[in-house]
Structure formats: C-alpha cells, structure tokens
From TrEMBL:
PANTHER family registered for this protein in UniProt: N-ACETYLMANNOSAMINE-6-PHOSPHATE 2-EPIMERASE-RELATED
Family that this chain belongs to: Belongs to the NanE family.
InterPro entries in the record: Aldolase_TIM, NanE, RibuloseP-bd_barrel
Source organism per UniProt: Paenibacillus azoreducens
Any one of the GO CC terms: cytosol
Annotated keywords: Carbohydrate metabolism, Isomerase
Pathway(s) the chain acts in: Amino-sugar metabolism; N-acetylneuraminate degradation; D-fructose 6-phosphate from N-acetylneuraminate: step 3/5
A biological process from GO: N-acetylmannosamine catabolic process
Primary gene name: nanE
The protein's name in its UniProt record: Putative N-acetylmannosamine-6-phosphate 2-epimerase
Highest taxon of source: Bacteria
Amino acid sequence: MGDLYFEQIRGGLIVSCQALEDEPLHGGDTMAKMALAAEQGGAIGIRANSVHDIAAIKQATKLPIIGIIKRDYDDSEVYITPTLQEVQELMEARVDVIALDATSRPRPGGETLKELVSYMREQGQKVMADVSTIEEALYAESIGVSCISTTLSGYTHYSPQQKDPDFDLLREAVRKVKIPVIGEGRINTPEQAAFCLKLGAHAVVVGSAITRPKLITEKFAHAIRKTRDGQMH
Ligand SMILES: CC(=O)N[C@H](C=O)[C@@H](O)[C@H](O)[C@H](O)COP(=O)(O)O
C-alpha cells in the first residue's frame, strides 16, 4: 500500500514559500499569502522555513507542508534542519514531512544524519533528504529516509555548479533508488518542471521562480540593462 502523502503529491507542484530575515517579504503573514496564492494556482504542497511561517501557512491553507528550519551554526556548513533541536521544533509544529540536509558534510556538534533519521522514524515522522550527489541519495535511502530531493546540488563544493537544475542527478537517482525522488533546485521555468516529471520525478519543488520577486525582478532588470547597454554602443 502506498503512503497517503506520497499518493497525494504524486506528479504535482510543491511551492517553496521562503523569505529569510534579510529578504523584503520576510514574515509569516506574507508567506501565508504566498502559500494561498500557490494553492489557488494549483500547487499540491508547500515547503516552508521556520515554525513561525509554518504556523501562519497552516492558518491560510490546508495543503500538506514540508517543513525546514534554516539555522547557522559556527562549526558546520549545514544549515537546513542541522540538528536534533530543529527536528524537535518541527515535530512540535506538526508538519507532514521534515526536510533536512543529507549531504556528507559534518553536522554541528558532531551529530549524525543517521541518528536524526532514526529518531524521526521512531516517532513516525516522514523525512525528506536534501542531497547534492547520487552517493548521498543512496546513503540516505539506506538509513531509511522517506524520499530524496535534489535540493542541494550546486550548494556543496563537490557537486556540479550550474545555473540549471541538476537533471543528471535526478535521472540517476530515479534509476537507482526505490523511494520517491523529488526534483528541486533552480527549476526556473514550467518546461523545466515538466521535464523533471518526464525524468521520473515523483513531484517537483519550485521556490525562487514563484515566490522571490526580488530575484525575478533582478533577472528582468539584468536582461533589459544588457540590451540597453548594447544599444548605446
Ligand atoms: C539551497 C537552499 O538553501 N535551498 C533552500 C531549501 O529549502 C531554498 O532556499 C530553495 O528556495 C528551495 O530549495 C527551492 O529551490 P529554488 O528556489 O531554486 O527553486
């Protein structure tokens, strides 16, 4: 029998509604409106950062939520749900899935991915592993995560640095792991999102291209500036 959550999100669009403290749209009220707009536009799930935003989004929509807490620690590069502290905060906030960094980089305080995943499994909590390579995807599957997401390709020094989504990682992960694989990271057009499904992605997460108007504006402004500067020469 398939898991209900994964049946619900199959073939669908999950919208990541995130704005950090230094971003203009930061705040639960804004993220709740983003999530509502996403729902009205046809999203079947939300990915959100922080207990505060998650609570606000829950008031605005009934869509299932993938929760993360981004937090910086001095002794590690890992910032997406790095330690047990963030895991416990997210469990209290009650999210459908907790996503966490599942790269091979050392975690704060010497905690391990395996310990965190075991803890969540014991509590019946579904887990999304944000990976940057196929080796990380295979390891995450072997320790019992519920699904893989290509979120962190391009954000570790040893993964391909590119402006497009990492379709190669998605393709390989779909072929090699048995659990659902989600396409995520730099999916900037509807065509790219659809292509992820063609490659076998279970669902697709899109963030910046939908919910970060400052970045979207920058792309338009940059393109226009380049053309204008070209015309002036
Ligand atoms: C690398 C990292 O910190 N990714 C974060 C993970 O939650 C978010 O900032 C991204 O917006 C999300 O993964 C969706 O990706 P994109 O915004 O490229 O569609």
